[in-house]
Amino acid sequence: MTQSEFATLPATATRDALRIEYRWIGTARQDAPLAVFLHEGLGSVAMWKDWPAALCERLGMRGLVYSRPGYGRSTPRAHDTKWPVNFMSHQARDVLPALLDALDIGAAERARMWLVGHSDGASITLLHAAAFPDAIAGAIVIAPHVFVEDISVTSIAEAKVAYETTSLRDKLARYHDDVDSAFYGWNDIWLDPAFRAWNIVDEIGTISAPLLAVQAHDDHYGTMAQVEAIGNVVKHARVHALPHGGHSPHRDAPQLLDDVIVQFIASHRASAA
């Protein structure tokens, strides 16, 4: 990947101006379709490591990775500010479109664009695809959340203990300018009792673009019920279960995951041709 660059998103009526960290992948493939990668709840540009570049190479695509506000080198979350229950909807409908605008990614390019989201980033991908059903070529969601499960809350509570008692904070600090902003922004809202009612199943039924939903059986942050719910409301979606790969199959089972993604996109390219 190239070095990080920064885009400024102007202030709106609902948020302050934001400085967003991003990197391009495969810029030599100038005419290729674009894949935009949306990271997990503790992710960032750097935490993707080389997986997006490897996948883009196989797909023959260009890529864009970025750090959401509060993560990586992007504008930190103010420590006295708590993400609202609908924070993922805000990211999907406001921040991502504003970033695409800032980078001059127009409607024609977006129509060829694939979104690849992981965990919270997968939920944001679903919400964006639902809000702008004719604006993307397709979407890949890995370990998505569409409602809150006990297994998720339990694992996130365990992560808080690990952050406060082990070396986890030091490890995450390598990837975030303000590691406490990043961690507690994610952890506090997921452990908020009000968040237990969060559910986007009814919102994603408008997705019309090709959709692949991938879940590993040994994911300790969610179960197959998540992708099954997606398949129930988005009838054309392909739901795929990985035998292993945990919550981050792009890290723990990349060959398995990449093969599924490449085959899925190739099949839609062939049908379009």
From TrEMBL:
Any one GO CC term of this protein is: membrane
Database matches in InterPro entries: AB_hydrolase_1, AB_hydrolase_fold, AB_hydrolase_sf
- The regions listed as transmembrane in this protein's record are none
GO MF entries: hydrolase activity
Task: Provide the AB hydrolase-1 domain boundaries.
Answer: 36-257
SUPFAM superfamilies membership: alpha/beta-Hydrolases
Q: Which UniProt keywords apply?
A: Hydrolase
Q: Which domain of life is it from?
A: Bacteria
Is-annotated flag, keyword Hydrolase? yes
For this entry, the protein name equals: Alpha/beta fold hydrolase
| Species this protein is from | Paraburkholderia acidisoli
